[in-house]
Fold this protein.
Amino acid sequence: MATVSVATIRAMSRAFEDFPAGTRLVSSKYPITAAAIMNFAREFDPQLFHLDLKAAGKTLFGGLAASGWHTAAVSMRLFVDTMDVAGGIIGMGVDELKWPNAVRPGDELRVEIEIVEARHSKSRPGYGIIRIRNVTKNQRDEVVQSFMASAILPARQEVKPPA
Amino acid sequence: MATVSVATIRAMSRAFEDFPAGTRLVSSKYPITAAAIMNFAREFDPQLFHLDLKAAGKTLFGGLAASGWHTAAVSMRLFVDTMDVAGGIIGMGVDELKWPNAVRPGDELRVEIEIVEARHSKSRPGYGIIRIRNVTKNQRDEVVQSFMASAILPARQEVKPPA
């Protein structure tokens, strides 16, 4: 990577212009194992229902469930891979982040992305800002996570939007 | 853990009643290394500015920076350790999640927690719902993450709130 200039990467890669408002994308699938749930939890969310198959049965979750922040991290991986913008996408803010159903061992997650708004950045020429609705579903089409977010990414054209 | 009943854990542990509205808590400190930033990114957010010390310098971040979702995961760890509720705290929703400053290698993070609201659950007797403001700061007191969240946790008393 370090031998290819950012300008070259930008020219070759998908960029802001490839994601007009209304664009819908679906990620590939990501399998969730009990080991992955417990590994993430040991480091970042060491609570009974994320750590211990047996004890988790007696909690509000009624069984081992992934940390919401693990689901968020997996969803980010699927988002990054699906958007495929080599210049990078930086999240600016997230709202309405919800985890309406638990993620269980054996689940297979995918992310559905909708670009709800797209505009050139006023303060950073050469960049665009997109508003995204991100919904993560399991193999039974149940929503396990949803949120709205704003993100900034490189544009091919430097367009000064009207002030 | 599996040999101690959840009822016993609940009786011994901090619970809903220990976190009235107005409670403020500060976590211990969590050091962020370049290796941790890159490890998290390889698995969950494989983008140039989270992966490659040299190439990151030419991006919008101007140097290696942690994924926002890594900061979120570390903040959850600090939150869980600080709240210290053995029965567990489950996040229900997050709003206004922002990352106003980048997290860099060598940073030391802490979380400041404010309980802004606390009420017994209507639908689940024996549980309470708290509304939290969570702010993560670095060693220079700069805010690197903030959000509002609702979470459910075990209560000692089963109180039916007025309908």
In short: Chain B has four helices and six strands.
